Give the backbone structure.
Amino acid sequence: MALESASLLKAGLMLLMAAQVLPSAYGCDRAFYERVINDFCIAKFKFDMEGLDRGLWCSWPDTMEIYEGLTNCTYQVALRVDCFWPNQIVDHFFMQIHRIYFHDCALTGRLIHDPPTSILAPFIAVPVLITLLMTALVVWRSKRTEGVL
């Protein structure tokens, strides 16, 4: 009896491990996916961010590699647990990351700026000058009536 219960326990443990490793026949196990990215991906991200000076958290060149690692981690986990990527869980996950780590970052580096005046001025001046030239040409041509008819 004890031998049968031990083998039954081993079989149950093997089935439990296989259920966690093999893709589900029903698709994405959202709770498991969320738990894995929260336990695994965020741990490395936290470790890497804590190794970076807090003043550099808003510097994209300094955080890009860490952020790409986090993105890649969520993608790889999604592939392993048979989930689509991106999905609502990932969106919520990254919203939390931004709320915790990047909430003080200014948008100045990502805002749209006007081009410098040296580039903008020719794009304004040339059409204005062509319009004035064409208007003067039409007026001059309309005043010259000799030889037209």
User: Anything to note?
Assistant: The CA atoms of residues 37 and 74 lie 6 Å apart. DSSP finds five helices and no strands in the chain. The first helix runs from residue 2 to 21.
